[in-house]
Amino acid sequence: MLRAMLRDLRAHLGRVAMTLAAIVLGVAFVVATWVVSDSAAATVSSGSSRTDLTALVRAKPTGPTDAEISADVLGRLAQLPGVTRAEGVRAGYAALVGDSGKIGTTSWAKTAGTDWDDSQRFALIDGRGPQRAGEVALEQQAAAEAGLSVGDSARVLLGGDRSDTATVVGVFSYRGAGWSFDPAVAYDADTATRLLRDPDAAPTAEPGFAQVELSGADEQAIVAAAEKELGAGYWLDSGSELREQRAKDAAADGDVIRKALLAFAAVALMAGVFVIANTFTMLVTQRTRQFALLRAVGARRRQVRRAVLTEAVVLGLVGSTVGVAFGVGLGLLAMRLLPVVGDVAYVVSPWAVLLGYAVGVVVTMVAAYGSARRAARVSPMAALRTDAAVPRRSLVLRSVLGLLAVAAGAAMVAVTSPEDLTEPKRMLAMAGAVLAWVGVLLTAPILVSAVLGPLTRLLRSPRPVTRIALRNAVRDPRRTAATSSALMIGLSLVCAFATVGQTLSADITEQVRSTVPENAVVLRAAAFGYLDDTARAAATGVPGVTALAAPRSGGVEVISARGASYDTDFTSLDPAAVGSAIRPRILAGGSDLRRGVLLAERVATELGVKAGDQVRLRFPVIGEAGQAAPVEVPATVAGVHEGSDLLRGQLIDDALVPAGVYRQGDSMYAVGADAAALRGALEKAFASRPDVLVQDREELLDDLLEPYQLVLGLVYVLLGAAVVIAVFGVVNTLALSVLERTRELGVFRALGASRALVRRTVRRESVVISLYGGVLGIGVGVLLGGVMQYVILANPVFGMSVPWLTAVVALAGMGLVGVLAALWPARRAARADILAAIATE
Description:
The chain crosses the membrane at residues 12-36, 261-285, 306-332, 344-369, 395-415, 435-459, 480-500, 710-739, 769-792, 804-824. Residues 17-226, 480-671 form the MacB-like periplasmic core domain. It is a multi-pass membrane protein. By secondary structure, this protein is α+β, with helices and mostly antiparallel strands. The chain folds into four domains: 1-46 and 240-391, no CATH class; 55-239, no CATH class; 444-516 and 700-841, no CATH class; 517-699, no CATH class. The protein is 54% helix and 17% strand. The longest helix has 48 residues, at 239-286.
């Protein structure tokens, strides 16, 4: 019996090939994900491993900036028993200036410098290390971003508005230790001491070290001696602890990548389940008489069921083998294409291979189980029939479960509210959305009858092709639902993420355009930097500036009159600039900071205060000796504002902030009578400041939206795999539909239908199924996206922005998918032998 089943598989290689394609794509996605995540973790871990580090010493900061280790402490550490090397590492602000005259618009530009030594901190890639003044070595990624190589002249921006020009003599990769900074440049020791020192330090002050690295054979003894020597003012980490922590961090990063990509792999596998299930339904349908004959000669139901499942195991093993090989190659190719600078580690773990086989075999068996049960229920009397027919299952239980899931999911979302959206409630709402999504999949067959059925009665076209196509799609709602569900899975997630992205983009756009005047010129610090007092003074003195908003943020505790408190952020501003250079969105009260503070909506709600109430502001203060006692300032609530990414927390008058409160700002907003002339004047004023970018409002908006667009683009590419798999499902469904209508097609041809008409009918059915799956996917995806943006942004569920362009493109794409998927089934239906088809009963 097993030999007969395997022989039948060879006789239907076309169906088998489509099943294998679905299995291969799903398994390849899973294996590639595992390979990429393991390789990424190994790349990070191997690129930073050091064997020369026994202990690392850092001074605990007493203020907002990092503390330094004195030369005296370095000398005492060098004298400890067992220490063979004590290396002081200098660090300071240093950033490469690119061709644009700025240090780069990317947020990840490196802005640190250090001193060169012969430790394992540096892995030389090209050239040599710097040996004298006028020479510099560059970190490889920073050099690549600046377009510099050995022999070029590099301009380095230093702290205190200083800069240095030096010849590039080497390119290196940096091996940090635990928390360590990631430098862009390295000077020789004497030059680093001179250039990297704090520009605000007294000229007579001796420069210190950012950290001290100790080397020696006996790690435990050195660490114990250093702890005794240093006392409580320092952090001390052993080399083994740092290496272990680095490996854990790399593994955690790889795990994050793995989980994110496996989510997309799961989507592809879900689409594959429907395709495989349809294929096995087709294979079982084609062999209805064979199963009946087997039953007639004594085969038990269990034997038939086992035979079909054995076929599934064989196909799963073959598909998994090809999928694992394809996935390994795809993962290694992805690592080569990723923007990783330096040596890349390629790891193919046994877990990746085993998981690929487990997924391929289990998914195939689960998808084939329903067909196996239907094959086992074929009556021996079916051997007397010559057409294909299998027992139909009731849809009542499935439909009831689906409707209950949709109702329960909707209720889980409804019980939450945006005013009090805590973390557990966010998880509840998201779980409800997923449950409702599953419910739609379960109710898909009755949706087919409910949606497509009435269309067959409404359409009264003199050309009956469309009506015939609709009736054929409704004929087996379970199979049509499986096909449309495969399309719906991928398309709904694409539309869901598109909805979230569109809503987020619309929210950011509204924030920026409502907060920043259209004629404002924006000054921004590049590369996660800050605008210092010098930059603010320079902007204030530019001719044509009529108002300048220079927001600076810090931490504060707001205390209500009843004693309730809330730890939050504040943003201090010049009251004269509010309403002219920057416009907070006021929800209650006024915007005059001279009359009091503007509380953020969430803080006002939590504390139960409103405009006109009294509050106390408790500021943490940094004194000369470090952290000092906090200072409380009484204030009146002048108003409540909505808040935005540009104006975070509570808005406070600059004059209200006590001395010693740490605050930083990364943007300024200037307005004047002539915006074009003002921008030119500001660009001229900051031409010598590579760390300051001059933009208009739309350029600022583009920079803020760019990261989200890149992420969404990657999501679309990954989810596209599910849509590709779903295309095979459309082909399978049409082929099975043609198979079941052999006699009908023969009569259709005998009555005068041309081959072109038959092909057009099958193509129209394909388009109907594809468009139905597209409409269902878009509708479900937009609703799912509405819940997702509600969970992320706390906006109302139906307050989302619908991505109309994505929806239109997706629907057009589904129509094209329908046409392409019908090419082979339509050709086969048109070439059917008329007499043989009519003879089928």
